[in-house]
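Escalated from tier 1: manganese (II) ion holo job.
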Amino acid sequence: MIGHRIAAIPGDGIGREVLPAAQRVLDAAASRYDVRLSWEELPWSCAWYAEHGAMMPADGIDRLRETDAIFVGAIGHPRVPDHVSLWGLLIPIRRAFDQYVNLRPARLLPGLASPLRDCGRFDVAIVRENTEGEYSDVGGRFATPAGDVAVQESIFTRRGCERVLRYAFALARSRGGRLISATKSNGIMHTMPFWDEVTAEVAAEHPDVEWRRMHVDALAARFITDPEDLDVVVGSNLFGDILSDLAAAVSGSLGVAPSANLDPTRENPSMFEPVHGSAPDIAGRGVANPIAQVWCGAMMLEHLGHPEAAADVLAAIETVTADPVLRTRDLGGKATTKDVTSALVDVLAKA
Ligand code: NAD
Ligand code: IPM
Ligand code: MN
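Tier 2 regenerated the structure:
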């Protein structure tokens, strides 16, 4: 029996519905390989904030450091400003543990239809820089004689750019051998030309990868006009964030889009949480699609060294998406979170 200590943070909104659902599915998959997932439930969330005035305790990061992985639902509630909740929990975890790669695969799962007409194949891996860039706490608000001014600095370090670009090029090498780097060096005059320069340097270390850079606006259009053409897309923190919701939509729904916040050095625990948020518009109704969270779990099993269990979870997802009766509302169906979860567990029990 191999055991893993996993921090489980359901968070807010539908995170509290899809995370327990995914735990059921992962336990079913892990037990087939004599793997035991010991879940450490942590109630850190906007509700916890209302009680304690903070999103997590002062020793929160130290407690997470003791775990093998962190499994998160979603953070955010309309009653707490988003920059307070996210900079109080999710973003500090990404930074404290140097989870510099945010890997966000998106593909058209069996049976699901893209909203794009004629989207035959869609299989892209977005590699998003996850610890610096446009997401920064450097800046401020100033009252000037001409009126209020807000300044927000972006931080792009050579080390930060190189390491995520190296990861992306290596990933492209192991996939279709093609990479597009998202830039905006026509409008942004310091950071983006620097990003482009480092991209070219890292590209020179990977002569077998066919690569190009594209301005992120044109690249966004490309996701719609030529989705089949994409393989690995690498981008800064903000560009990767926006493109990953776009990729999720092309693949059918945000409800099926997973993401892994990885420290590839494995010095620190990595964190697995869906691309989607807490979806206050549908929270509490039992209709959220649990597939994104379950797929995150498959990525976590893979990361923990259990590729067979991960493959079983993905195969179960594919069996379920192929059945029109098992589609949640975001995919045009009527199934509930529970229907889909039970179906996934049943598939794993029978396999
Ligand atoms: P969202 O991803 O929560 O929702 C966008 C739309 O997608 C909504 O209509 C929602 O109902 C739908 N949707 C999302 N996930 C779904 C699922 N699993 N099944 C079915 N439908 C689903 O984005 P938002 O509305 O911009 O953000 C809501 C809150 O979540 C905000 O507080 C935001 O800051 C936060 N957020 C958190 C994370 C995170 O914790 N990783 C990510 C994104 C947004
Ligand atoms: C995501 C989310 C977060 C991000 C927000 C909630 C801070 O949108 O994980 O995609 O932008 O990183
Ligand atoms: Mn996002």
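Residues 254 and 276 are 6 Å apart (CA to CA).
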